[in-house]
Amino acid sequence: MQIFKGESKYLINSKNRAEGFELLSSVNDKSIAAVFFDPQYRGILDKLKYGNEGKSRGKARSSLQQMNEAAIINFINEINRVLKGSGHLFLWVDKFHLCQGVLDWFLETELNLVDMIVWDKGKIGMGYRTRRKSEYLIVFQKSPVRAKSCWTDHAIPDVWEEKADKIHPHSKPVELQKRLIAATTVEGDVVLDPAAGGFSVLTACEQVGGRNFIGGDIAYDEK
Ligand SMILES: C[S@@+](CC[C@H](N)C(=O)[O-])C[C@H]1O[C@@H](n2cnc3c(N)ncnc32)[C@H](O)[C@@H]1O
Fold this sequence. Notes:
Blueprint: E1 16-17, H1 20-25, E2 32-37, H2 43-48, H3 59-62, H4 69-82, E3 83-93, H5 95-100, E4 111-120, E5 134-142, E6 159-161, H6 174-184, E7 190-193, H7 200-208, E8 212-217
Parallel strand pairs: 1-8, 2-3, 2-7, 4-6, 7-8
Antiparallel strand pairs: 3-5, 4-5
C-alpha cells in the first residue's frame, strides 16, 4: 500500500526533522497499523504553575516545543484518519492528564479506549507532594474494536517496570514499546510516531524487525 499521498520528503525507517501534523497530513487514509503519540504537554505546567521551569533542572524539558490542547486534538484527528480499521493508538499521558481525562479529545474520532498500562520508571523523580515514579500509556483502538485477532501477546502486564535509556529528556521504554508493536502489528506494517523525541519507537521497530517506521520531531537535529 502507498503510505504517502504523493512524493514525500520524509524518509521511512529514519529520523526525520518534521512538524508532526504536517507529517501526518502527508500520509494516506487508513494506511498505518499503530501510532505512538507522546505529546509535549503544556497542561501540567499551566495548571500547577511551575513558575521556576527552565531555571534549573527543568531546562532541557522546558526548552522543547510544547503542544496546547487544540494542537493535540488536531494531531489526534489526523491519527484517526491515518489509522487502519482496528489499528491502535498508544497515547502517553502524565498523572495530570490521566486524572483530568482525555476523552474529550476523541469526540470526533472512531478511536475507542480499550486499555491502559502504568509504566514504572524504576527511579524516583520530582514532585511537590508525592514524587513521580510512573507514567501512563492509554490504548485506543480504531473501530471496529477487536481483541483476539488484533492483539496477539496476552502476557503483557498492565504495570510495566523498565528503566529507559536517557537519550532524550522524555525517553520512553523501548522494551515495552517492542512488546506492543509485536502484539499489534505484523511484518510489513507501518508504525508512526509524529513527535518522536529520541526516536525510541524507531529503535523498538528496528529491534522487533519487519516493521516500517515513519516519524519525526520538530527539534530533531540531523547534524
Ligand atoms: C515527550 S517528547 C517525545 C519523547 C519520545 N517518545 C521518546 O521516547 O524519546 C515530545 C517531543 O515532541 C516534540 N514536538 C513538539 N511539538 C512538535 C510538533 N509540532 N511536531 C513534531 N514534534 C513536536 C518535542 O520536540 C519533543 O521532542
